[in-house]
Amino acid sequence: MQAADRAYEFAKARILDGRYTGGELLSEGLIADEVGVSRTPVREAFVRLQTEGLLRLYPKRGALVVPVSADEVEHVMDTRLLVERHAIERVIRREIRVTESVKISLEVQDALAAAGDVDQFVEVDREFHRIFVAAAGNPILLALHDSLRDRQTRMGLAAIARDAGRLAEILDEHRQLADAVVRRDLNRAGAVIDRHLDRTLSLLLAPVPDLIHRQEPR
After folding, report:
1. Which of 4, 31, 139, 208 is deepest in the core (most CB within 10 A)?
2. DSSP 54
3. CA angle at residue 15 from 14 to 21, to 5 degrees?
4. pTM above 0.70, yes or no
């Protein structure tokens, strides 16, 4: 792996999992020392992360980790609800089989929850929702859903971090959703996905330090 790629993967992972919090100012030197590379590849990594909306560069000062704003939270969750509700409805109406994929995903989620592996649980959580979108068979909607991946990861970790019981709730809601889809119960499936995403939205909009905009460098 090239030095710039290493610096990029290192910084991005820590932004997504919250080790680098919203509003924190990162220096090229800090990342360079952590990764064991020079500042030039770190600078390249920072530019790449800025294009993805995760950093905001301030020449000779460093890079600000862009906080997750309330508007962004609402926009992402609105988009997810529209896409996922449509996908679930299509899967049910067209009797598209997802039983085996959903079953395997729930088993993996169970194991990760039992092990307390929150980072990996959030990734499998995202993949669980993707099962329905992929099965619906619209590649444009799937690409849109996939484009939210980093935001979903960041928000999913934030939601679990602020409610110790949220992980268990997510797993229970996933089981309910899977059961409703397998039984072709469109009304129940719609109600479950609405409640599931609304609960996450409520947690993310609750005032906590990591989601409140901090003073930007001048």
Report:
1. 31
2. S
3. 105
4. yes
Answer yes or no: are the C-beta atoms of 84 and 174 closer than 8 Å: no
Q: Give yes or no: residues 10 and 54 share one domain.
A: yes
H or E element in which residue 179 lies: helix 166-182
**Tokens in use for 34?**
């952590």
Using left for φ > 0, alpha for ψ between -120 and 50, and beta otherwise, residue 72 falls in alpha
* C-alpha distance from residue 99 to each of 7, 11, 134 (Å): 40, 37, 14
Over residues 46-53, mean pLDDT: 92
Whether residues 152 and 185 fall in one domain: yes
Residues 50 and 80 in one domain: no
Distance CA 53, CA 49 (A): 6
Compute the mean pLDDT over every residue in the chain, rounded to the nearest whole number: 91
Write the CA distances from 124 to 31, 152, 183, 206, integer angstroms.
28, 11, 23, 24
Confidence band for 215, pLDDT divided at 50, 70 and 90 = very low
At residue 211, does pLDDT exceed 70?
no
How far is 185 from 187, CA to CA, in rounded Å? 6
Is residue 208 over pLDDT 60? no
Cα separation, 14 vs 153, in Å, equals 11
166 and 138 housed in the same domain: yes
Report CA dihedral (99, 105, 107, 109) to the nearest 10 degrees: -150
State which residues form the domain around 29: 3-65
Reply yes or no on whether the pLDDT at 212 is more than 50.
no
User: Which tokens sit at 62?
Assistant: 């460093």
| Mean pLDDT of the 14-37 span | 91
